[in-house]
Design brief:
This protein is mainly beta. Among the domains are: 191 residues, no CATH class; 148 residues, Mu homology domain, subdomain B (Immunoglobulin-like, Sandwich), CATH 2.60.40.1170. The chain contains four helices and 32 strands.
Length: 485
């Protein structure tokens, strides 16, 4: 009966009957699809090159390079590149497949981090000779990025053989965003304008786009699974992370040397008041500076003719028989159980629990199956509230958003928040491959020995050995600069 009442009530709500019934959203209340994220693509030149796009409705717009345009993900576009250097009468019409866009948090603006489409003379020559040139622009994973300086309008291009799948290779290195194909087919402006779709290209000076008439038809590679309980995973390709201990945990080996300080890690080792060696881990900072790289290959189309003569083949195969006999093995083993008799008389035991110390003395014995009496003496005394606490590391930068080639200043503060002095403080910061330490930029507020050594990411491991003891309540700061590659 209760179930029927619930279903009846549910039907009334769905049909909009009764007081407070749900109303269908009107077109004015629908989400504005014009605010969908865009992938900004920059055509840097060469100087004088003309870039023509076809935003739909049988229209075209012509610009002089360099120019930056915004494209909706999920669509395929055709762009005409004309007035090329030394070939003013030749034009190329590449196709652009936009598979994703940047996922930046405010106030970062994705227009400042475009994917750069470069057309060099070798590309033009290969296309004119009949080759099909394919380039995949992917957003680099900072942990797999090349440890080399990159220029703003000249991304890294890696040549691969035509047998390799560029999209699959790009997924292993980061996140594929743009696929560009060059061919030598000739199109008229009328044909290209007819293929354009309104509401998909944001031109310079425009603030928003109207909704497109058709939904996207390419898979969005940036779409990721979101755990309903844990939520979305933090972004990785858009940011450079530094600090924390994200890989295998840092620790000491048999020789007392610290291990496990991987690129991006920032840790400190110290010795507490009773001589124990400890490790402290800093917080993690993020600097927004996405970087694109390019995988490319050129497939040369040719003509091949071959003739194969079929011959008669006879194959004879004989089988042989193998017989083996393995006698069973017999094992005989006898064991004699020996009795063990011992006498133990432990001495006093001292046990420290929390902030109190407990002393116990126990006398135990065993004679001919009779248990002797024991006497226990316990004394407790309250320790003063001066216990060791972990060394605290705090890390920050002078900026949250930067660009390729900029210099970023990093700060690390170490503080003794306990009630006892600590000694042998040493701070280690292993930089990611996309951060290049600026030589001579290290500074320390306390006397220290500063050293650097190469790490596995192609950058360096910075280390400060602080001199003297760090008294309770005292702190110090080290700073350094790194150039974004």
């Amino acid at each position: 009966m209760v179930a029927r009442s619930f279903l009846a009530l549910l039907g009334l709500v769905v049909l909009g009957v009764g007081t407070g019934a749900a109303q269908l959203p009107s077109p004015q209340n629908l989400p504005d699809r014009s605010k969908a994220p865009l992938l900004y693509v920059r055509f840097p030149g060469p100087p004088g090159m003309r870039v023509t796009v076809y935003p739909g409705a049988s229209t075209l717009r012509d610009f002089t390079a360099p120019v930056t345009l915004g494209f909706r993900p999920g669509y395929i576009y055709r762009v005409r590149l004309s007035n090329l250097p030394e070939r003013p009468n030749i034009s190329l019409v590449p196709t652009l497949e936009v598979h994703g866009s940047l996922q930046l948090s405010a106030p970062s603006n994705p227009v400042n981090y475009p994917a750069v489409v470069v057309v060099n003379p070798d590309d033009v020559q290969q296309v004119l000779e009949g080759a099909l040139l394919t380039k995949v622009h992917y957003l680099e994973d900072p942990q797999r990025a090349l440890a080399e300086r990159a220029q703003k309008d000249q991304p890294f291009e890696i040549e691969l053989p035509p047998s390799r799948d560029l999209m699959q290779e790009a997924r292993a290195l980061g996140r594929p965003m743009l696929l560009v194909r060059f061919g030598n087919r000739i199109f008229t402006d009328t044909e290209l304008a007819r293929e354009g779709m309104p509401g998909t290209i944001l031109l310079p000076g425009q603030k928003a786009l109207s909704p497109p008439p058709l939904p996207p038809y390419l898979p969005l590679i940036t779409a990721k699974f979101v755990d309903p309980l844990a939520g979305a995973k933090p972004l990785s390709e858009e940011c450079l992370h530094d600090g924390g201990d994200h890989g295998p945990r840092a620790g000491f080996d048999r020789n007392g040397q610290i291990q496990g300080v991987d690129p991006e890690d920032t840790v400190a080792e110290y010795r507490n008041s009773i001589g124990q060696r400890k490790i402290a881990v800093s917080n993690r900072v993020c600097v927004c500076v996405p970087r694109f790289a390019v995988l490319r290959h050129a497939c040369v189309l040719g003509h091949s003719q071959a003739s194969t003569r079929v011959t008669d083949t006879q194959h004879v195969q004989s089988f042989s028989r193998l017989q083996a006999q393995v006698p069973p093995l017999s094992t005989s083993q006898s064991e004699t159980v020996a009795a063990t008799q011992s006498r133990e008389r432990p001495s006093g035991t001292e046990n420290q629990i929390g902030l109190s110390v407990v002393e116990q003395r126990m006398g135990l014995g065993y004679t001919q199956g009779k248990q002797l009496t024991t006497d226990v003496t316990a004394t407790c005394r309250e320790e003063p509230r001066t216990v060791d606490r972990p060394l605290q590391l705090t890390k920050w930068t002078d900026c949250k958003e930067t660009h390729l080639g900029d210099v970023v200043t990093f700060y690390i503060r170490y503080s003794n928040v306990g009630g006892r002095p600590i000694n042998d403080v040493a701070i280690s910061d292993s930089l990611t491959g996309r951060l290049e330490y600026v030589a001579g930029s290290s500074e320390s507020s306390r006397p220290s020995n500063f050293t650097t050594q190469p790490n596995e990411s192609g950058s360096v491991l910075l280390r400060w050995e602080i001199q003297g003891a760090l008294q309770p309540g005292e702190s110090g700061t080290v700073r350094f600069q790194a150039r974004v590659r």
